[in-house]
Specification:
Blueprint (H helix, E strand, L loop, with lengths): L12 H9 L13 H6 L1 E6 L8 H25 L16 H13 L3 E2 L5 E2 L20 H10 L4 H5 L3 E6 L2 E6 H4 L1 H16 L4 H16 L3 H8 L6 E7 L14 E8 L1 H12 L1 H6 L18 E11 L9 E4 L3 H7 L2 E5 H19 L2 H4 L4 H14 L6 E2 L2 E5 H5 L3 H22 L5 H19 L6 H15 L3 E4 L4 E4 L4 H17 L3 H11 L4 H8 L8 E6 H6 L3
Parallel strand pairs: 1-15, 8-10
Antiparallel strand pairs: 2-3, 4-5, 6-7, 7-8, 9-10, 11-12, 13-14
Helix pairs in contact: 3-8, 8-9, 9-10, 14-19, 16-18, 16-19, 18-19, 18-20, 18-21, 19-20, 20-22
Bound molecules: zinc ion.
The site of zinc ion has 5 residues, from helix 18.
Length: 561
């Protein structure tokens, strides 16, 4: 069996969601691989959007949002590493292809460390990445920080704040608010947001932009986070500010700047609203006894679908986010909930460069031809919605969550459940006449191809293991067939619907009964890679890229607007 390591990037909220519908691919190259091979793992794509939806005032808003994003991008580079202030001294400047490749990969990674190969340095003469990235003095230890707070209790809040940088100061330490540390960039970004607000005709958008501009100057993000949750009927959909703390691997305190500037996708949003309205019916139709169902659950959890017009800061380097869930501030989540945003054109780009070529390698030709974006995107939507279906608590034990009961087996089972329940639910919607039989067959074929995509993440990762158990169960029950002569697989379109529902029932029952031993036995029985699958996965190496490298069509458009 091919040895597959854990995903190389630390996962937290944004990436977990990205992982939820995508997972975190491991690097396909060996350590010490050439820079050209590393670059080849990323397929270049241009992210486009429907610019005809915008009037002149909206184009002005977009222009300013791109400007503000670029200012935050400059901050983020410093948050990754203080050395990014002047990389010219460490990068080779000759005209050889090797030197050009190093400069290019540096630009892709936002620094001299390979984000999809456990942060290995790839620039000669560079040491390991500082755990605190650019947010702490590089020679400061965890102990020094903790001792300093111990001696200066009144400064603890400022030191552990999301929105400060730690500096050396006369032999001691000092917490500098972002609004001072990055004053030049944040004042420029705030000015751009204010001009955008002046031209925003949607009141909720104008309010968010004004409040967010103020946050940049005050380091107080509470009101603008609430305004972001309350964006309504806006076409332009900006998420812009300091959000996630993954870059700070020393303490996980310091929030990195990033921006996702989107245009809401009206057709996809309508599809989503239609699906969300069916959730109570789908809970009722779960393939488990009624005693385990939550028929009076509150199903309202906002999801919006955008096309990404421009991304900057933390979302830019390495593996691309396809969805995120914000805000992180628990005070805002308590009263406003949180919002999931799906990036449709990013998902489409990954579909074209990843799922389609995988299908061509592993599926029989007549099924590979039927792989389409709409069934793929619909399955991702339904997977996300299916996380909200089924047992939250062990039946008859209202104090015991499924998560606590299943412990280390929970994540893999929950991801597999979301897949199987998703496909089962689409079958239910076909019976109701919401989708055609033809579409459902494409969903089944997509489900088979997609299991190869996520098994690539490795059996030590929740999605990879979850997919492996689905694949082996379906294969064992004859719902997936294998042609030994060609090494290709196919969905048995007659058998698969029934077997998927049965499998969904298995996952749901393990959850409902909180059966940890049963879950362990199931994962053990179905969680290893067969030689036939191993051979198919091996065919993908070096053929199918690990991720995409986007450029943004808006940059070109801005020249003509
Ligand atoms: Zn998921």
């Amino acid at each position: 069996m091919k040895k597959i390591g854990p995903p190389s990037v630390i996962l937290a909220a944004t990436l977990l969601i990205a992982a939820c519908a995508g997972g975190e691919p491991e690097s396909a190259v060996e350590s010490g691989a050439s820079i050209a091979d590393r670059l080849a793992q990323f397929a270049p794509v241009t992210l486009n959007f429907e610019a005809s939806l915008l009037d002149d005032r909206q184009k002005r808003v977009l222009r300013r949002l791109v400007e503000a994003s670029d200012h935050l991008d400059a901050i983020y580079r410093l948050q990754v590493w203080r050395g990014n202030a002047d990389p010219s001294s460490l990068l080779p400047d000759d005209e050889t292809p090797e030197a050009a490749a190093i400069r290019d990969y540096y630009e892709l990674m936002y620094g001299p460390w390979d984000r999809i190969a456990e942060d290995q340095p790839f620039v000669p003469g560079i040491g390991p990445k500082p755990a605190g990235a650019g947010s702490y003095p590089e020679d400061m230890t965890k102990t020094e920080f903790e001792e300093w707070i111990g001696l200066n209790r009144s400064e603890a809040g400022a030191f552990t704040s999301y929105y400060t940088v730690i500096e050396r100061d006369n032999g001691g330490l000092r917490a500098v608010p972002y609004s001072q540390a990055y004053v030049e960039q944040l004042e420029a970004a705030a000015a751009a947001l204010r001009d955008a607000a002046d031209h925003a005709d949607n009141a909720s958008l104008e309010r968010f932009l004004r409040l967010r501009a103020e946050s940049f100057l005050t380091d107080d993000y509470f009101d603008s986070e609430i305004a972001w949750m309350r964006l309504e009927d806006n076409l332009i959909d900006p998420t812009i500010g300091p959000y996630e703390v993954y870059e700070d691997k020393l303490f996980g305190y310091k929030a990195s700047f990033e921006s996702f500037i989107g245009i809401k996708d009206p057709a996809a949003s309508a599809q989503l609203a239609g699906l969300a309205a069916r959730l109570p019916d789908l809970e009722r139709a779960l393939p488990i006894p009624d005693q385990h169902k939550y028929l009076d659950r509150d199903f309202t959890s906002p999801i919006s679908v955008i096309d990404l017009v421009y991304g900057a800061g933390e979302t830019r380097p390495g593996v691309q986010t396809i969805a995120f869930n914000l805000p992180n501030d628990p005070r805002v989540r308590e009263t406003e909930g949180s919002k999931k945003v799906m990036l449709r054109n990013v998902i489409r780009a990954k579909f074209e460069t990843n799922l389609k070529p995988i299908a061509e390698q592993v599926l029989v030709a007549e099924q590979a031809e039927r792989i389409g974006f709409e069934p793929y995107f619909t399955r991702i939507l339904v997977h996300e919605l299916a996380h909200g279906l089924g047992p939250d608590y062990v039946t008859g034990n209202p104090d015991l969550t499924v998560n606590k009961a299943l412990q280390e087996h929970y994540s893999a089972l929950e991801e597999a459940k979301a897949d199987a329940v998703g496909t089962h639910s689409l079958g239910v919607l076909v019976e109701r006449g919401d989708y055609s039989q033809d579409f459902y067959e494409e969903v089944l074929i997509d489900h088979v191809a997609d299991m190869f995509r996520c098994v690539r993440f490795g059996a030590t990762e929740a999605h990879g293991l979850g997919c492996l158990t689905q694949f082996n169960y379906l294969r064992g029950a004859g719902a997936i067939t294998y042609d030994e002569a060609t090494g290709k697989f196919a969905a048995d379109l007659q058998e698969m619907p029934g077997v998927v529902s049965e499998l969904a029932g298995q996952y749901l029952l393990l959850q409902a009964t909180g059966d940890r031993d049963g879950a362990a036995a199931f994962l053990e029985r179905y969680g290893s890679m067969s030689p036939e699958m191993e051979a198919a996965i091996a065919r993908l190496d070096g053929v199918v890229p690990v991720d995409i490298r986007p450029s943004y069509a808006v940059k070109e458009m801005l020249r003509d607007w």
